[in-house]
Design a protein that fits this description.
The chain is an alpha/beta fold. 30% of the residues lie in helices and 21% in strands. It has helices at residues 16-23, 76-85, 93-96, 108-121, 133-141, 156-171, 182-196, 204-213, 245-252, 285-293, 312-322, 392-405, and strands at 2-8, 29-32, 41-45, 48-52, 65-68, 73-74, 97-100, 104-105, 200-202, 217-221, 259-267, 270-272, 306-308, 310-311, 326-330, 340-348, 354-355, 368-375, 409-413, 421-423. A ten-stranded mixed β-sheet has the order 9-7-5-2-10-1-11-15-19-20, with helices on both faces. Strands 14, 16, 17 and 18 form a four-stranded mixed β-sheet that branches. Strands 3-4 form a two-stranded antiparallel ribbon. β19 and β20 form a beta hairpin. α4 crosses α5 (133-141) and α4 (108-121) packs parallel to α6. Bound molecules: inosinic acid. Inosinic acid binds next to α5. Residues 11-13, 38-40, 126-129, 131, 133-134, 223-224, 228, 237, 239, 273-274 line the site of inosinic acid.
Length: 425
C-alpha cells in the first residue's frame, strides 16, 4: 500500500504542480488534501501553460484518477472556470475527477468576510489571496460550514441562507466597508454549483483506501508551503490549513502508516508572497534580479513575490516536521549568472546569539541570517539533461545543501517545462 506525498517546504510557489505532473506517470491516483483556490499550480508542456487552482495536477494524464479530498475548500465559481479552461483537452471529468462529499464550500459571503477582515487590518494585513479561505475554514472548525454533500439534501438552501445571513451581520462588525452586489454574487454561485456535478461526488476516504487495498499507488499533492502551515508556519501570516504531512492524513482519510515517501519541494532560493517574516529577504538588486529572472509573480493574484537567498534553517525545520525522505530542487536555472550565491546556515538573534532553530517570532525581533558564501556559475543550464553536465559550482551547491539538510536531492528542475527536469540520484 503506497501513498507518497509532495509538499512545499517554503512559503508556497515552490513548483509542486510541475513536479506532480512529471511524477504522475508512476501513480494511479493524484489527490489534493488541503487548501483551495488560493493555490495556483502551474504546468507547462507542449508549449502551453496551465494554471490549476483546485483540480489536482494529474488531470492531463489519461491514466490517472484525480481526487479532491475532504480537506480541500471549494469555490464553485472558480471550479467552473477551471473546468471550462480545460475544455480543449476533452477530459471526461465524470470518470477522471472525484470530489469528496466532505469538502467544504466557499460561499460568496466567505469571500466578502475575507476582504473586510483584511481591509480592517490595515498595515497588519496577512496578504491573503482573498479567496475566502480563512472564513471557510473558520466555519468548518466552528461546525457551521456547508459541505459538497449538503447540496443534494432537501434543507440545503435553508442552511445556506442561515449561514450567509450570519455572515452579512458579521460584515457589519468590521469598520472597513466593502462594496458588493450580493445578488450578482449569489446568482453566479448557484449557477456554478452544477459544475461540481460534472465529477463524481464520493466518500473519497473509502475510495482512496479501497484503491490502496487493490494495490493502486496514490500521490498526495500539497498546496501552499510548510511555512504557511496553520500550526507550524509564521503565524498569523499563514494560511488556514495544515499544509504539512499530517494534513494529508486528515485531508484524505489515510492513516500515517500508509505513507511511504515524502517529497519535499523547494526553490534554489526563497520567495514569499503576502506579509510576514522572511529572514533572508533581499531588498536590493539581487532580490530584484531573482524576481525578474524567476518571473516571480503570483499565478493566482499576479502579485510580485518577495525574494531572498536559500534558508537552510527553515528548510531543516520543514524537513523535520514533514519527515521528508527526498528533496526536489526547483528553479536552479534562476541562479545562473550570480558570481557568488549565499545560503543561510544559522540565525543571529538581536542579543548576538547564534541559533539553529526556526524561532517562534522569526524575523520579528531582529533575527539576522548568517550566510555561507558559495561560488556561482555563469553557464546557461536550461537545456542540460544529464546531471554530469551540470556546472561544477552547481554540483557543489547541491552537495552542500544535501549535507546541511542530511537529505538527498533526487530531482532538479531547470525550467518550467516538463522536459527541463533531471534526476540526479
Ligand atoms: P490565504 O490562504 O489566501 O488566506 O492567504 C494567506 C497567506 O498565504 C498569504 O500570505 C498568501 O499570500 C499566502 N498564500 C496562500 N496561498 C498561497 C499559494 O498557493 N502560494 C503562495 N502563497 C500563498
Amino acid at each position: 500500500m503506497i501513498v507518497d506525498l509532495i509538499l512545499g517546504l517554503q512559503w508556497g510557489d515552490e513548483g509542486k504542480g510541475k513536479i506532480v505532473d512529471v511524477l504522475t506517470k508512476s501513480y494511479d491516483i493524484i489527490a489534493r488534501f488541503q487548501g483551495g483556490p488560493n493555490a495556483g499550480h502551474t504546468l507547462k508542456f507542449d508549449g502551453n501553460k496551465h494554471i490549476l487552482h483546485t483540480i489536482p495536477s494529474g488531470i492531463f494524464h489519461s491514466d490517472a484518477l484525480n481526487v479532491i479530498g475532504n480537506g480541500v475548500v471549494i469555490d464553485p465559481v472558480i471550479f467552473k472556470k477551471e473546468i471550462e479552461n480545460l475544455k480543449s483537452y476533452n477530459i471526461d471529468f465524470s470518470s477522471k475527477l472525484l470530489l469528496s462529499k466532505k469538502a467544504h464550500l466557499i460561499l460568496p459571503t466567505h469571500r466578502l468576510l475575507d476582504a473586510a477582515s483584511e481591509k480592517s487590518k490595515g498595515k497588519g494585513k496577512i496578504g491573503s489571496t482573498l479567496k475566502g479561505i480563512g472564513p471557510t475554514y473558520m466555519d468548518k472548525t466552528g461546525r457551521n460550514g456547508i459541505r459538497v454533500g449538503d447540496i443534494s439534501q432537501p434543507n440545503w438552501k435553508e442552511k445556506y441562507s442561515t449561514l450567509s445571513k450570519k455572515h452579512l451581520k458579521m460584515l457589519n462588525y468590521f469598520n472597513s466597508k466593502i462594496d458588493f452586489n450580493l445578488k450578482a454574487l449569489e446568482d453566479e454561485f448557484f449557477k456554478s454549483l452544477n459544475s461540481l456535478k460534472l465529477c463524481q461526488i464520493v466518500d473519497s476516504e473509502y475510495f482512496i483506501n479501497d484503491s490502496l487495498k487493490k494495490g493502486k499507488k496514490v500521490l498526495a499533492e500539497g498546496a501552499q508551503g510548510s511555512l504557511l502551515d496553520i500550526d507550524f508556519g509564521t503565524y498569523p501570516y499563514v494560511t488556514s490549513s495544515n499544509t504539512t504531512a499530517a494534513g494529508a492524513c486528515t485531508g484524505l482519510g489515510i492513516a500515517p502508516n500508509k505513507i511511504n515517501d515524502v517529497f519535499g519541494v523547494f526553490k534554489a532560493y526563497v520567495t514569499r508572497v503576502g506579509s510576514g517574516p522572511f529572514p533572508t529577504e533581499l531588498n536590493n538588486k539581487d532580490g530584484e534580479r531573482l524576481a525578474n529572472i524567476g518571473k516571480e509573480f503570483g499565478s493566482t493574484t499576479g502579485r510580485k513575490r518577495r525574494c531572498g537567498w536559500i534558508d537552510l534553517v527553515a528548510l531543516k525545520y520543514a524537513i523535520e516536521i514533514n519527515g521528508v525522505t527526498k528533496l526536489i530542487m526547483m528553479k536552479a536555472d534562476v541562479l545562473s549568472g550570480f558570481e557568488k550565491i549565499y545560503a543561510c546556515v544559522s540565525y543571529k538573534t538581536s542579543d548576538g546569539k547564534i541559533i539553529n532553530h526556526f524561532p517562534y517570532d522569526s524575523g520579528i525581533n531582529g533575527i539576522e541570517p548568517v550566510y555561507k558564501e558559495l561560488d556561482g556559475w555563469m553557464d546557461e543550464i536550461t537545456e542540460i539533461n544529464n546531471p554530469n553536465s551540470l556546472p561544477i559550482s552547481l554540483k557543489n551547491y547541491i552537495a552542500f545543501i544535501e549535507e546541511a539538510l542530511e537529505t538527498p536531492i533526487k530531482i532538479i528542475s531547470l525550467g518550467p517545462d516538463r522536459k527541463q527536469t533531471i534526476y540526479v540520484n
